[in-house]
Specification:
With about 450 residues, the chain is of the alpha/beta class. It contains ten helices and 18 strands. Helix 5 crosses helix 6. Helix 5 links the parallel strand 13 and strand 14. It has two domains: about 110 residues, CalX-beta domain (Immunoglobulin-like, Sandwich), CATH 2.60.40; about 290 residues, Phosphatidylinositol (PI) phosphodiesterase (TIM Barrel, Alpha-Beta Barrel). The strands form three sheets. Strands 10, 11, 12, 13, 14, 15, 16, 17 and 18 form a nine-stranded mixed beta sheet that branches. The N and C termini lie far apart (about 80 Å). InterPro entries: CalX-like_sf, Calx_beta, GP_PDE_dom, PLC-like_Pdiesterase_TIM-brl. It comes from Halioglobus maricola. GO terms for molecular function: phosphoric diester hydrolase activity.
């Protein structure tokens, strides 16, 4: 006979299936916990009397059916509580079904010329989530140093003086990761790459975005020229859509080979420590906010429509984030390079194409390279076969650019030699033997493995 007690228990289990205490049914499986990431961020300090807001983004990899609460508290490091920033503590809620929340920290503006300063944000979480890291860093960028005089140096900071070359992650590693994404730059930074190389174009609404090509067709799920698209339109695109690990961006692979396709659109969760935004086309400012302590190489592309103040915009944003001597602003377009240098003489720059070609050709044989105090580096290919633009070189012209003589002449002029784009082990070792100062590569993971091997044990076998 069925008792009212047992009947009531059965009805309760049917009516409230989320309850897990019913002895005559299996518990409903719990929802897997989300990974909660709060990435480091930098922001300019502002002028005296201003209180700009540095904002941390808290991101879950997948939404939860119930709220997740993040507790936070600022802790002084080189920045001083009450002088550089306002101590902040409390909690923020990522509501059920959503992925993100913001943590604002107010800064105190001043006019002091000083290095960037940092504070920590200590974190704990309540709810069905686990932290990627229990602490993250806020960087207060110095925006007060005047940039109206050329940078003067005796020892070129971009030369390695016989040590191993710098590992330049070309576009964040074109073959290793989805190029020009914050995910790619984050991964190569963790792997040990020394310099993050990025290209900058201007959008239809005069925003600065990190992208190599004139159009979005090769790397994203969209079509069109960058100059014809607004930032909002570019934000809708999946910048990892055509990426295949170890191959770059082939368009003829099975769907399952495109392992990051859909992260940007929220169709699949991001890797640990990242968010969907890290797989979209970033702005230059976002890259500066995310990587305040990494060396950068920012390549100026042609200002296609000529409508925006392109070079001045780049100079201004670099200045706001205090990036003068830990960045190289590079351009193969002589006009862009000269325009940028005129508005930002203190920022390190490389020699543009026409000027560099004249110097290289003039130094052949017994020639020498004269002082070029306005620049810090040659950025050159190993030979002219990599210079493929229409009209750039006479047909059938070939020249070995990187030789013992060229490297010696460049170093005698106190210029660093940074070689692009080197993607094989054999070529990496050959460039090291010449004593170059940096190797730009689409395969920064391979280069890092070589650099982490003792010099006398490096081999491609």
């Amino acid at each position: 006979m069925i008792s009212f007690k047992s009947l009531g228990l059965g009805i309760a289990c049917i009516a409230a299936p989320l309850l897990v205490g019913c002895s005559d049914s299996n518990p409903r499986p719990a929802v897997d916990p989300s990974l909660l990431s709060v990435m480091p961020v930098a922001y300019p300090e502002g002028a005296p009397g201003e209180m700009p807001v540095l904002t941390f983004r808290a991101m879950l990899d997948v939404p939860q059916p119930r709220d997740v609460t993040l507790n936070y508290s600022t802790v002084a490091q080189t920045a001083t509580d009450g002088d550089d920033y306002l101590h902040t503590s409390g909690e923020v809620v990522i509501t059920a079904g959503t992925l993100a929340a913001s943590i604002p920290v107010e800064l105190f503006g001043d006019a002091d010329e000083e290095p960037a300063e940092t504070f920590a944000l200590e974190l704990s979480v309540a709810g069905n989530a686990r932290l990627y890291s229990e602490t993250t860093t806020g960087t207060i960028s110095n925006d007060d140093t005047a940039c109206d005089a050329p940078y003067s140096y005796t020892e070129n900071p971009w030369r390695v003086y016989g040590a191993d070359p710098l590992n330049y992650a070309h576009r964040g590693g074109v073959i290793d990761f989805p190029e020009n994404t914050l995910f790619a730059y984050g991964e190569v930074a963790l792997a040990g790459a020394d310099v993050l190389e990025m290209d900058v174009y201007q959008t239809a609404d005069n925003q600065l975005v990190v992208l190599h090509d004139l159009d979005v067709d090769r790397t994203t799920n969209g079509t069109g020229m960058v100059v014809d698209l607004t930032l909002a339109e570019l934000r809708q695109l999946d910048a990892a859509y055509w990426f295949v690990p170890g191959e770059g961006t082939p368009h003829d692979r099975p769907d399952e080979d495109y392992v990051y396709r859909g992260v940007a659109t929220g169709d699949i969760p991001p890797p640990p420590g990242y968010s969907a935004e890290d797989f979209r086309i970033p702005t230059l400012e976002e890259a500066l906010q995310r990587f305040p302590h990494k060396l950068l190489n920012v390549e100026l592309k042609p200002d296609v429509d000529g409508q925006g103040d392109y070079e001045s915009q780049i100079a201004e944003v670099l200045q706001r984030y205090g990036r003068q001597t830990d960045v190289i602003a590079a351009s193969f377009v002589d006009d862009a390079a000269m325009t940028f240098k005129a508005v930002a003489p203190c920022v390190h720059t490389s020699i543009p194409l026409n000027q560099g070609s004249a110097l290289v050709l003039g130094a052949l044989g017994d020639g020498v390279i004269p002082p070029v105090p306005e620049h810090v580096a040659f950025q050159v290919p190993p030979d002219t076969s990599q210079i493929t633009g229409p009209g750039q070189l006479p047909e059938d012209f070939f020249l070995e650019v990187v030789t013992d003589d060229f490297v010696s002449d460049a170093h005698a002029a106190n210029l660093a030699v940074q070689v692009w784009t080197i993607n094989t082990c054999e070529e990496m070792l050959r460039m090291m033997a010449f004593g170059v100062d940096a190797i730009m590569t689409d395969r920064p993971i391979l280069l890092e493995e070589l650099l982490n091997t003792p010099a006398d044990q490096r081999s491609c076998e």
